[in-house]
User: Fold these one by one.
Assistant:
Number 1:
Amino acid sequence: MAPPTPRTRAGARRGAPGPRRWAAAAFAAPLIAYLAAFYAYPLYRNIDLSLHDYTPRAFIQGDPEFVGTAVLREVLTSDAFLPAVANTAVFTLVSIAVQYGLGLALAVFFRGSFPLSPVLRALFLTPWLLPMIVSASTWAWMLNSENGIVNAVLGAVGLGPVDWLTSPGWALVSVIVANIWLGIPFNLVILYSGLQNIPGELYEAAQLDGAGAWQRFVHITLPQLRPVSAVTLLLGLVYTLKVVDVIWIMTRGGPGDSSTTLAIWSYRAAFGTGRPDLSEAAAVGDLLILMALAAGLVYVYLRRREARP
Amino acid sequence: MFRPPLSDPSARARSVLPQGTRPRAVRALCAAGAALAVAAAGTACSASGGGADDDVYTWWDPYPQHADGSDWERRVQECGTEAGVTIERTAYDTTALTNQALLAAQEGTPPDVILLDNPAVSTLADAGMLTTMGEFGLDTSDIDENLLAAGVVDGEAYGVPIGANTLALYYNADILDEAGVDPESITDWASLTGALEQVADEGHGGITFAGIGTEEGSFQFLPWFWGAGADLRDLDSPEAVEALELWQGWLDDGYAPNSVIDNSQNTVWEEFLTGEFAFAENGTWQVDSAEAADFPVGVIPLPGRDGGAAPTPTGGEFITAPVQSDPERYEVTTRIAECMTTPEGLVETATTFAYYIPPTQAGQEALLEEDPDLEPWVDAVRNARGRTGDGLGTGYPPISEALWGAVQGTLSGTADAEQALRDAQSEVQSEADGG
């Protein structure tokens, strides 16, 4: 897609005399310093933390013992590891699949203009505007076993009560539902703007050819939306992998470890108890970074393949 | 710790997210958020520490509910003025305070004074960031031994309690009257469970407590654990199993609501205030709120298994002095600490906090003179037991973590009490062997 002109100009710049290169470096320096201070160093520090045994004492004295991958191995072989990975996978995949599906359905729905459509669309953004603490606490109230409105409604039709947040079988489901609700606006907004970029003529032409609404959706909307969908899903994946707040506020990863994801594990190890275990937290963090990185690479690969004719 | 900052449930959440929740947009920037947060903790949070200005002394405490202009803030400032300096006070919530203290010590900018939740004292002392009270020059001989114990590591006191609180059983007198239960008759587990049955027959909720998967959960379970005669060094003893089965039995029989699994002490109190429950396990800090309830509220000691009051854990903060690069600062800091720990000072702290029981005999007598109704609480505090006692020290946090895990597992039905506690014990064991 990139027009050829900038590339040739860039080629010319490469051979330019010294002063211009210095100027270019000077312009780039703030950005590089920023990247180094706020991205590279924290990453380095995270890895550093995970390779040493940082007890509170070692943390203060600055003399942690280098233990290599021992902490990481401990995490990987821990009894809690596989359940946490499974919870993370279920939480992430179910969340983004449903968020994307509902977001797309709503985006298509709002594409047709009808009275009040902008107002309704704005209403769907509410979850985005509320502070996380408010929405997650509200969900926790609604799902409360004794006094929650959800059980009250279920009771009125003769069902339940269900221990949404306090039974091992339901806790993960509950936090997924809340997280889906939180993620719909993001999907709606991005997909909706993606839809705006699909030329109307395509639909007109298809209609003339006799394509029905479903066919138009499958053969025009979906393929045209593919790049936007890929970005939405990738960002969704990265955001959801690292979700701490919703789960922490609603269940703290409990009861037991039944809604503990890797991100919750990491957070709890570092900040959740009176005994900060930064090495363990950082080791779990390493794993999360690797997962996000892998997702990013898959995305880049898919984009490349797409760009190729 | 356990003085809930606000009465709305968001307070619970607030107390777990140290820096407050960041807006989504900001969080979106850090692609690997949780991981980054950990890393950032080591780098980007350099705190406003002491050491810089001779006339300004820094003070950290875990009372964000007492804002600028509050009685507590004024009280702190007065102690500063008395010592001829200005105090710069910063409040964090309990868990965040420990982390911030570690970070500040690592940066070499610790505050002059930290009020620390008592189980954290041994952790920070062990990290080598606190001065002993001997070096610091504060006399600890008047302090009740059971209360001072939490701050003692290897025979040295690393802090002084500014007050203490503990747990007891609040009851709703209206409900007990209706069910024909005499609160005085509740002296052991059997009579308590009998009373629960009676109130349940009248259609009332029985008891509510906090079984949450945090230190609060262990704090609330300990009176039953100790009341059965169990020992923290032996989590899977038959006594421990019995205590956990008591809780589980109440849940199974519907005497306790299912929400106890997720209840913080704050939430417990809110449930109790609805007037639906006959009993609630809660602390000294609810005395004022109990008086203001819509129904008459009474207090009895938490019963032990075979009768008598169960040992309850001590709660409350210690005044500690982090090691400073400039030892000359200790002199003023000592004066500030002394101002907080005179008998009058302790009583003032006690009433400011509604209610903290002074940790010294003189302070307790002075408090009782002012408010004789607090006698049961003074007794409770005198008989309370430190969580980090029994030589556990820094060994306590991992034990507590395993214990609340077992409580959670049992109450939510993942494992039976015996299995859960056996797992907890082996978790502690393997951690002790590994570390």
Number 2:
Amino acid sequence: MRKVKEFIIEKLILLCGLASILFVTLIFLFLLKEGIEVFKSVGFFKFLFGKSWYPISEPPQLGILPLILGSLLVTIGAAVISIPIGIGCAIYIAEIAPQKLKEILKAGIELLAAIPSVVLGFIGMVTLVPLVKSVFHLPTGLTALSGAIMLAFMAMPTIVSIAEDAFYSVPKTYKEGALALGATHWQTIWRVLLPAASSGILAAVMLGIGRVIGETMAVMMITGNAAVIPHSIFVPVRTLTATIAAEMGEAVVGSEHYFALFAIGIVLFVISFAINVTADLFLHKRQ
Amino acid sequence: MFKKGLLILLAFVISASAFAAKNENSIQVKGSDTMVNLAQAWAEKYMENSPGELIAVTGGGSGTGFSSLISGTCNIAMSSRSIKEKEIALAKQKGIDPNEIKVALDGLAVVVNPSNLIDKLTVDQLAAIFTGRIMNWKEIGGKDEKIVILSREVNSGTHVYFKEHVIRKNNPNSKEEFAPSALMLSSSQAIADEVAGNPAAIGYYGMGYISLKQKPVAVAKDEKSEYIKPLIENVLDGKYPISRPLFLYTNGTPEGLTKKFLDFTLSREGQGIVLATDFVPVKK
């Protein structure tokens, strides 16, 4: 009897484990089925590298190069801002901060992660956007830079908490050995702990970037959404996610526009899948 | 997506039941997408006031509205344009007598920051600005500042209307587009806020959104014409160039529920809903 019970529970848990894979597969298949249609009429390369996005014109122009570049620009900007700050923060929490401050900092970062993105977007719209406009003397503050700064806030909690774990997982003996050899605290951190934790930190960075590229609401509110190929970070951009969110509601089901939005979904899926796999590789390398 | 599916399902259920019943207690309203929200708001209020009567509203475009009025599958057609000669002829063949009722007006204001020197523009200049041919305010007599174009997202009826009537100047064969550098904002309020805070911005939206923080530009059809401010009275007498009437069409003189619903749309309450959905009432 006990064996039967054990068996049933085991299988049930197995089912739960497989469920997520099943769902991912189903979602991907659905995306593929809906998105592939657009390549019949537009062509794969014309879709990916087309420079104009006018989805409701007759005939529609469905080139997503400006959208891809917009997403990349915002993501790279956010990474440049959040990676140094995030890793610095992780080092401070893991190595330097006294116990009490550590608790406060960790709670603060968790709180940052808990702020809904629409709230961050709203705050960005009323504070950051006018600031960016006046500091850089731009015609408008709704730019890739504003988006990058706001998204850096969103990536930071992910980066800090995973990087911090990476520091903790470095064996104590490394640190003690370095200190015993006469290295200073900073030398120990820089030459011993950082290299030892590097794969975990890379994973942290990757997951942070994954968070940024999939973010929709805040970007849509503060990047201006102009589907133009960006030549600097001070211009408005339109991201892949914002395009789907803004246009899905009205796209006629079964139209080219509708399929094109699903194809954008495929592109996003592939990008974040690649990022997650890379992060996973780094994490496994560490273990 | 799920919501959309549900809505379609609901529309099917409602229309199915309407056809099944096909009685005095239910009517079909079909046509212009621009007017769907307005008609829906009317229908909801009307059904709230008189329970037991059913008004089903579907979109599809003005042309769809006319073709279903002609084929007898709807009681009221919504349209943001007048009926064409061809459609009248077709209707007469089928024994349908289209009867036009003007229920609202649709006026679009072009707005700039109050500190902007520009206070009047022609439709040609507007087209040149929004397509990106004029890039700097000084080209039309303003300060030396790059123009920041603000537009609604492509899902907005206002976007489509502005593109067809200003950028393409009512020419169906025109291939003109909004400049790619145009900022796409998700609501009229977002445009209002950006214009209020940005001296170089220009945007457009329904007249209801104008406040003291934005300056509506007077618009002229061409250089020789008078520049007209987007005010309700100017839209009412048809002088303001970027406005159009919105119609409901019935077969012959309306009767029964159709008449009651039409009377409601023109009543004080109905015209209040027109204002609330950012159109211009035809009756004050």
